[in-house]
Design goal:
Length: 671
């Protein structure tokens, strides 16, 4: 206890003793007056005539009975003051004890309330006792029976009560004792909240119905909530709710950060700073989707519920403002800014898929966001979310509308030198499959519907289908243009064979189902058509050297060996030309191997047998086996460039994928 508190208690104790002595004197005076009353009444009768004769204006002395009544009425409040002082003394001991509210928070708050009521009661009774004693003083001063000692005692009692009243008002104003008690309540509030808080764990799967039902329960036990609420209500009534809110925000914000600490959220800031130069953005968006749902549906949902449970008895803006501070401290703005960095990145086809992913997450969380951030206190979060949705919808729609023109602008590029499937074609078909799958297509339709609505345009349900048709049509035109760029006609046939085979292989995919069986079958027929053209243009001409009875050139004599020599030279030349040509599809490659072998080997074997020519291994001419071995090495890719996968980037890795994306990005930027 401080020196000021000790001095104040000593003053109260001295006042109490002095007041008690005064009350005792007043009681004695009242008894004396009761005994003197009959005698004075008799004297009063005898002196009436004399009094009238001497003082015709009347007596200044009052009724002794009236004096007695004044004293009796003053005694009640004075005695009450003494009893209240004793109660206050005991309450002070409880409030100033070292144990504080830890043992029983409800009893401690009850003691505070009793102390406050006692202080109010003390003030009221002091005022009443002062008024009555002042009346007694005035009455005694006008009576001849009044002893100066009695009058002095009464005046001293009045002075003591006035000093006590002044001391009580000062204590109520300054609230030193109550401030200490309230500070102990705040400490207990923080301790109870801290000990009861525990981080929320991230599950490996999305929140299930059972988990959501479990999450609907309060984050804290009922006994803890009752303690917190009773402290909040008491501190709010004492104008100290701001300190309570600050403590709550501090503790629960720390609990939120502990819940997120294990998530490794470094990618948020890196993506915001580095934008397009950031690494594996797809992986980051996947993590962002999972973490965004976790923080909204689990972490902040708990905090929102707890704020309402603890501060719900107060005005709504108090607990919503408390939650808003915790939400900001949680880092939710960093999650939203991550999405904003994607929306503000450079245009590219892959950006469309990223934006659809972001929109899907925001749409899934729309009801949660409306519930959590609906109040005015969360305006900052609401505004950023609204801006993010706007940029995502506008950005995704713009890229989608530009896709056909983007494909058309790629027509000026060169086809693959090996006659294979252009990276652009493989990219576009996989890209269309992604847009048409069950996950992306509903989201894309919703985004485009919103976009059209903002422009006050009617949405056409076949919009996505028509746009994909346009993309495929522009791709086919590109293939025709590229095929004409080859100097060697046979290589252009290989090129068209590969690409029609690629289209034909889309059967069973989303794009294949959209284009229909007739389109798929037509590409299959074109594949066979260009296969036949290729064989006739290449190995069919070589086969003529050994299938005719006459030489194909006048420069070659009728010698079978010279004919064979001419065949070998033509074969070597053709083989060297086709050494770097590829057929991507393995089944088509095997089929073409068989067709080439069937075109050459039987005729070659028959020719050797017809002229009884024996070709030795390692000699000038090819053996049948060496010819087959050489033909089997044709059309094989140097590395596996194109493989089936459900992901758009599966066909390309490293520089290959980046080259295609950069090429598309350049086109979109140029537009």
């Amino acid at each position: 206890m401080s020196m000021a508190e000790v001095q104040s208690l000593d003053n109260l104790l001295a006042c109490r003793n002095l007041l008690k002595a005064s009350v005792d004197n007043s009681t004695a005076l009242a008894l004396a007056l009761d005994q003197t009353g009959p005698r004075i009444a008799e004297l009063d009768k005898r002196l009436t005539l004399l009094e009238v004769a001497i003082r015709p204006g009347g007596s200044k002395n009052g009724s002794f009975a009236a004096v007695r009544d004044h004293i009796s009425l003053a005694l009640g409040p004075a005695v009450a003051v003494l009893k209240i002082l004793d109660s206050i003394r005991e309450l002070e001991k409880s409030l100033l004890s070292d144990s504080g509210p830890d043992s029983d928070i409800f009893s401690y708050i009850s003691t505070i309330r009793q102390f406050e009521e006692a202080m109010k009661f003390l003030t009221g009774n002091c005022n009443l006792a002062i008024q009555w004693l002042q009346g007694v003083t005035q009455f005694l001063e006008g009576n001849f029976v009044a002893d100066d000692q009695y009058i002095l005692s009464v005046k001293r009692s009045v002075a003591i009560l006035e000093e006590l009243l002044a001391t009580g008002e000062q204590a109520r104003r300054n609230g030193e004792l109550l401030c200490g008690a309230f500070a102990k309540l705040e400490i207990s509030f923080k301790q109870i909240l801290t000990e009861s808080s525990a981080p929320v764990g991230l599950t490996n799967s999305s929140t299930s119905t059972a988990e959501k039902a479990c999450n609907a329960a309060s984050p804290l036990p009922g006994t803890i909530l009752r303690k917190l609420r009773v402290i909040v209500e008491k501190l709010n009534g004492s104008d100290r709710i701001k300190n309570c809110i600050s403590i709550f925000v501090e503790v629960r914000s720390l609990n939120v950060r502990n819940s997120l600490r294990a998530l490794d959220l470094d990618y948020l800031e890196k993506a915001i700073k580095e934008h397009d130069d950031f690494g594996d953005m797809e992986s980051c968006i996947h993590d962002w989707s999972k973490h965004m749902k976790f923080i909204a549906q689990n972490v902040l949902e708990n905090e929102h519920r707890l704020c309402k449970e603890v501060f719900g008895s107060l005005a709504s803006h108090i607990w919503t403002g408390c939650f808003a501070k915790i939400a900001v401290d949680s880092g939710i703005l960093s999650f939203l800014r991550f999405g904003m960095s994607i929306a503000e990145s450079k245009k590219s086809p892959t950006k469309l898929l990223r934006l659809l992913n972001i929109f899907s997450v925001l749409e899934d969380l729309r009801m949660d966001f409306n519930k959590l951030f609906g109040g005015e206190s969360c305006n900052e979060i609401k505004n950023i979310t609204r801006d993010l949705v706007t940029k995502v919808v506008n950005g995704a729609s713009e890229i989608f509308w530009e896709l056909p023109l983007q494909v058309e602008l790629e027509r000026r590029s060169s086809p693959p030198s090996d006659g294979g499937v252009p990276r652009l074609l493989s990219f576009v078909t996989d890209y269309c499959n992604r847009l048409l799958d069950d996950k992306s297509r509903p989201i894309l339709n919703q985004v485009l519907r919103i976009y059209q609505g903002w422009k006050h345009e009617k949405y056409n349900e076949g919009l996505v289908t028509n746009q994909i048709y346009r993309v495929v049509r522009e791709t086919a035109v590109n293939l025709d243009a590229w095929s004409e760029a080859y100097e060697q006609r046979a290589l252009s046939y290989i090129f068209m064979m590969n690409n029609h085979c690629h289209f034909n292989s889309l059967k069973g995919t989303e794009l294949g189902n959209l284009m229909g069986d007739s389109w798929l079958n037509a590409n299959g027929k074109y594949k066979e058509y260009y296969s036949a053209l290729y064989l006739r243009e290449t190995w069919g001409k070589i086969q003529a050297f050994i299938s005719q009875d006459k030489p194909v050139s006048s420069a070659i004599s009728d010698s079978p060996k010279k004919w064979l020599m001419a065949f070998n030279e033509a074969f070597d030349d053709m083989y060297k030309k086709q050494l770097n040509w590829v057929i991507i599809d393995e089944s088509l490659r095997n089929k073409m191997h068989k067709l080439v072998v069937q075109t050459l080997v039987p005729s070659y074997t028959s020719y050797l047998q017809k002229y009884s020519l024996v070709v030795e291994q390692g000699g000038v001419f090819y053996t049948v086996q060496s010819l087959e071995n050489m033909l089997s090495t044709l059309f094989k890719p140097k590395q596996v460039k194109y493989t089936s996968s459900s992901t758009i980037s599966s066909h390309f890795t490293g520089k290959q994928r980046n080259a295609v994306i950069d090429q598309f990005r350049f086109t979109l930027t140029a537009m």
